[in-house]
Design a protein that fits this description.
DNA-binding, Rossmann fold, alpha/beta, DNA-binding response regulator, Arc Repressor Mutant, subunit A, OmpR/PhoB-type_DNA-bd, phosphoprotein, 8 helices, 223 residues
């Protein structure tokens, strides 16, 4: 999953990026509203963490522009604790949730997990496909109840496919949603990770749809 962080405070920006990367997300960042608006308008994100008090273009204006332009990614706004009016303005502008500063990083991560799940149509923190289970809270994968050890990249790929279970996901979409702007998009990394996942999972759930991409679905006997 790929997240955009738009926050002008350098320390908080860094803390958010570090926490999100540690949680397995690919992260892009902007330090002012104009840059944030541009990235959100031109890159595909699974969610955005957006501060309201930004230089050059305030967060409410950024969000309103995105929604007018048809950008539907979930947006979590950061507000000052004593400014209830900011919360109302953010929700009215199209925000999906908010966190008041100062906040606990775990709360931000939990709210983002929920936003990403709901955007993909999943209400539960656990996503199942046959005997394969993904626990989004713990970042844990099991098959038949047995834990499967994955690298961060393998987990990220599996999580994206499971969030979009039953739909064919192209290699281009995977690259756009799993890696930040600096990733080499001409590499065969996706194919390598798919091969590794198949070996580690040892269940036939990742289907190659020739010429289109990959789809995750339960084996016929579990469907």
């Amino acid at each position: 999953m790929r997240i955009l962080v738009v926050e002008d405070d350098p320390d908080l920006n860094r803390q958010l990026v570090e926490a999100l990367k540690d949680a397995g997300y690919a992260v892009d960042t902007a330090s002012d509203g104009e840059e944030g608006h541009f990235l959100g308008d031109t890159e595909p994100y699974d969610a955005v963490v957006l501060d309201i008090g930004l230089p050059k273009m305030d967060g409410i204006s950024v969000l309103e522009e995105w929604r007018r332009e048809g950008r539907t990614m979930p947006v979590l706004i950061l507000t000052a604790r004593d400014r209830w009016s900011d919360k109302v303005a953010g929700i009215d502008a199209g925000a999906d949730d908010y966190v008041a500063k100062p906040f606990h990083m775990e709360e931000v991560l939990a709210r983002l997990r929920a936003l990403v799940r709901r955007a993909a149509g999943h209400a539960s923190a656990e996503i199942e496909c046959g005997t394969l289970r993904l626990d989004t809270r713990a970042g844990r994968v099991t098959v038949d109840g047995n834990p499967v050890k994955l690298t961060s990249h393998e987990y990220r790929l599996l999580a994206y496919l499971m969030h979009h279970m039953g739909r064919v996901v192209s290699r281009t979409e995977l690259v756009e949603h799993l890696y930040d702007q600096d990733f080499d998009r001409d590499s065969n990394t996706i194919e390598v990770f798919v091969g590794r996942l198949r070996r580690k999972l040892a269940v036939d759930v990742i289907e190659t749809v020739r010429g289109l991409g990959y789809r995750i679905s339960a084996p016929a006997n579990d469907a």
